[in-house]
Structure formats: C-alpha cells, structure tokens
C-alpha cells in the first residue's frame, strides 16, 4: 500500500483517541498495524528513505497479535451472547460468534474506524483479511477491559442486521423442534397448512404453522411451497423457544458495559445432547444448498406449461393479435413493423 501522510505518528495519536485507547504506546500500534507482507515491498526491502506510510520500518509484524486478539474477541462476544441468549444452544452462540468475527464483518468495522488507511502492507488496496487482521491485532494489544468495550461498542451493534435463522440454518429444523418440545412434555407436534394463494400462478404462497398438542401455535411462516413453509415455520418456532424474537431487547453502550459478563464464561447446553441420537442437527452446507438462480427460468417455464397452462389455457396476450402488433417477418410486410406514430392512429 502506498498511502502518504503528512505525519503518520500524528495519525496514530488521533487513532488512539478515536478508538478509546490513548494509553497504548505508539510502538504497539505500529506493530498491530503492520502486516507481514509489508516487509516484502520493494521500497522497504531496498531501505528507501521515508518509506510510506511513515514511522520506523522495524522488524515485527502482527502475526502473534492476530491470534491473541481473535481469542479475546471471541471470549467476550460469547459471554455477551450467552447473557442475552441464555435459552439458545451453544451451537447457535458459536455460529453467531463466527459470523460476527469473520473477515468481512471486521473489515467493515475497521473501514469505519479508518484502520484500512493506517495498515502497513504490500497490498493496494488493502484486502479484507489484512484489514480484519489489523483489528484483531489491536484487540491483542488491548487489556481485557478494553477488549470488552471494543466488542460492545463496535461488534455487538452488528447484531441488529443479522438473521439468526440464516446464520444457524438447521438441515432438519422440524425434527429438532420435535425433540425439544417432547423433552418439555409435548406429546404431539403437527404441521398444518393455514392458507394458500396463487397455487397455479408463477408466485404461489403457502402459510404453514406448527401446533403443539393440537392447540398451541408455536410458530408459523410463509413459503413458495408447502415443504418450504413448514421448514420456515419450524425455524420460527425454534427461535421463539430460544427467546429470539423481533422485540428482543439487547443491551448496548454503558448499559451493556455494566453487565458482569465474566459470569457467563460457561457454555450453554448442547443441542446435540438434548436431541435424540438419530436427529440430524447439522447445518445446511454450501454443497447441499443450491443457488436460487439455478434453473429458475427453466422451472418457471415447466411450471407454466404443466400447471398453469393446463388449468387456465392460453393467456389473451397469446391468443389475440391487435392492430398495432409488430408481427413477424414471416407473416407481416415490412410496413407493419414500423412503430405507429401518434398522428397516424385513427
């Protein structure tokens, strides 16, 4: 990267106050923001005077700090999630933790903090991984209390934009839901189709619900087929059981900082142990989930031909030919291919 600063040391000083850790020494910041590839740059290898960005070139990179900081961030984030999601299994906690601490999410946070402009690296522009590693390395430099504030102030707010059902997408949610409800004393779990519309159209919709003991609706959702609607309803029911709803109140800022998160170091219960041995508790992998655009047009054409067309027949747009139809070269003369002008319309 070749970014020119008037005074790199002043930028580091301002960054320390911006991130809330002015007591960290400049050397620690430089080490945390130095990627290993920085020393492979031509100007650095040739020891060019005033290689950009500034500060002394040094010989240390942030490799060790990245691993140390990642552990610290994960520890505090899991404690926060266990405090708010005490009814959720540890597998969901780990899935959310993995999502919030991946390169894409941390790189977005680092960009807002201006870290990508301070990273010393060979890359230009700075990659997501290098930017995220710099953020992790900063956590490796900070004390535990500072890392806690870092998680609460910058990582936890990202929870607002995530969908727990997508992050923890079980392969067989209905089977998992059945085992959990039976462990709570429910004797019968029944999926029901509540209503549907547009079955013979290009965009059908089905609304399904999961009933416990024939009376209690534990979750319902919509889908483009009955199987998908039942699957989504089971996911919704699981989130309700784990107290993950749209009106869930999460603590932020000073309110979250005042919570004794140290008391939530023990993992939550394991979903695998709570379900029966034969229940599939695995997640949908990339290999099992197909791209929604795969064969989309082909499926729509076949559905129209086999279902819609057989039910309602040809549409009027295909049966009627009005006065201003462009026609085709085989059936019309060229004068009919000319688009009519307003003053020629009688």
UniProtKB/TrEMBL annotation:
GO BP terms in the entry: mitochondrial translational elongation; RNA processing
InterPro entries: Ribosomal_mL44_DSRM_metazoa, RM44_endonuclase, RNase_III_sf
Highest taxon listed in the record's lineage: Eukaryota
Occurrences of domain Large ribosomal subunit protein mL44 dsRNA binding (ranges): 169-275
Entry's Gene Ontology molecular function annotations: double-stranded RNA binding; ribonuclease III activity
Gene3D superfamilies: 3.30.160.20, Ribonuclease III domain
Subcellular location: Mitochondrion
Family statement: Belongs to the ribonuclease III family. Mitochondrion-specific ribosomal protein mL44 subfamily.
UniProt protein name: Large ribosomal subunit protein mL44
Source organism of the structure: Caenorhabditis briggsae
Gene that encodes it: mrpl-44
């Amino acid at each position: 990267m070749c970014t020119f600063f008037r005074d790199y040391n002043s930028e580091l000083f301002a960054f320390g106050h911006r991130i809330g850790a002015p007591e960290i020494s400049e050397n620690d910041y430089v080490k945390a923001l130095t990627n290993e590839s920085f020393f492979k740059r031509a100007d650095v290898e040739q020891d060019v005077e005033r290689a950009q960005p500034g500060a002394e070139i040094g010989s240390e990179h942030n490799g060790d700090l990245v691993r140390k900081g990642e552990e610290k961030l994960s520890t505090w984030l899991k404690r926060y999630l266990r405090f708010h999601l005490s009814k959720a299994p540890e597998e969901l906690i780990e899935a959310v933790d993995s999502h919030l601490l991946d390169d894409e999410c941390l790189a977005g946070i680092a960009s807002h903090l201006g870290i990508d402009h301070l990273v010393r690296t060979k890359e230009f522009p700075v990659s997501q991984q290098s930017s995220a590693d710099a953020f992790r390395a900063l956590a490796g430099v900070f004390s535990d209390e500072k890392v806690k504030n870092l998680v609460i102030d910058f990582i936890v707010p990202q929870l607002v934009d995530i969908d727990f059902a997508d992050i923890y997408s079980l392969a067989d949610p209905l089977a998992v839901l059945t085992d959990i409800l039976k462990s709570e004393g429910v004797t019968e779990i029944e999926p029901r189709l509540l209503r549907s519309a547009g079955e013979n159209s290009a965009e059908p919709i089905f609304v399904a619900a999961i009933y416990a003991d024939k009376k209690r609706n534990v979750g319902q959702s919509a889908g483009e087929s009955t199987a998908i609607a039942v699957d989504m309803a089971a996911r919704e029911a699981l989130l309700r059981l784990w107290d993950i709803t749209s009106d869930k109140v999460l603590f932020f800022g000073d309110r979250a900082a005042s919570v004794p998160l140290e008391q939530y170091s023990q993992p939550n219960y394991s979903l695998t142990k709570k379900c029966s041995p034969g229940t599939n508790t695995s997640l949908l992998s990339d290999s099992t989930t197909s791209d929604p655009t795969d064969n989309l047009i082909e499926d729509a054409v076949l559905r129209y031909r086999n279902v819609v067309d057989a039910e309602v027949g040809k549409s009027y747009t295909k049966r009627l030919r009005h006065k201003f139809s462009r026609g085709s070269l085989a059936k019309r003369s060229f004068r009919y291919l000319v688009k009519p002008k307003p003053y020629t319309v009688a």
